[in-house]
Amino acid sequence: MTPPINRIDLERVLKTLPPETQDLFPHLANLTAIELLKRRVWISTQLKSLEQERMAIDLEIEETYSNAELKFGIAITGGWIMKSNTRTSWEYTPEVIEEIKAIQKQAQQGGMANEIKTTHLRLIQHYT
After folding, report:
1. Is 52 part of any domain?
2. Each residue of 46-59: pLDDT tens digit?
3. Which of 10, 18, 45, 81 could pair with 73 as two cysteines, CB 3.0-4.6 Å apart?
């Protein structure tokens, strides 16, 4: 049997533990699994609605301010700055896409690629 840890060692270990963080969502603690699922559905619905509202606001802002103003930034109270950002995406011809897929498949089969799996939850609305 392993002897118990002595008091000095225990105190040293306890001092190295990170401080407890406050639970950001204490209201979730008492929900059942079904209630958590329902809450998740409600939040997803709200997020979709808010994203649509944000897009409408962005269109209005882009019509109100010039490209130069948005590029250099518009100061907003509270220390915020609204700036436009540009991101470049590429669209490839079907031939290039097939070539890329062939190179990827070859790398996967030849051990020159590492498989990375991620898991996430998603909601699908089912109509009955």
Report:
1. yes
2. 999 999 999 999 99
3. 81
Instruction: Read off the pLDDT band of 32 (50, 70, 90).
Output: very high
Q: Is the pLDDT of residue 105 over 90?
A: yes
Q: Three-state SS string across the chain, please? A: CCCCCCHHHHHHHHHHCCCCCCCCCHHHCCCCHHHHHHHHHHHHHHHHHHHHHHHHHHHHHHHHCCHHHHHHCEEECCCEEECCCCCCCCCCCHHHHHHHHHHHHHHHHCCCCCCCCCCCCCCCCCCC
Domain count, the chain: 1
Residue 91 dihedral angles phi and psi, to the nearest 5°: -115, 125
- Is pTM beyond 0.70 here? no
Q: Determine, yes or no, domain membership for 95.
A: no
Is 32 within a domain?
A: yes
d(CA 87, CA 83) in angstroms, rounded, equals: 13
Domain enclosing residue 59, as ranges: 26-84
The alpha carbon of 20 is separated from its chain's Cα centroid by a whole number of angstroms, namely 24
- From CA 40, how far away is CA 107, in angstroms rounded? 39
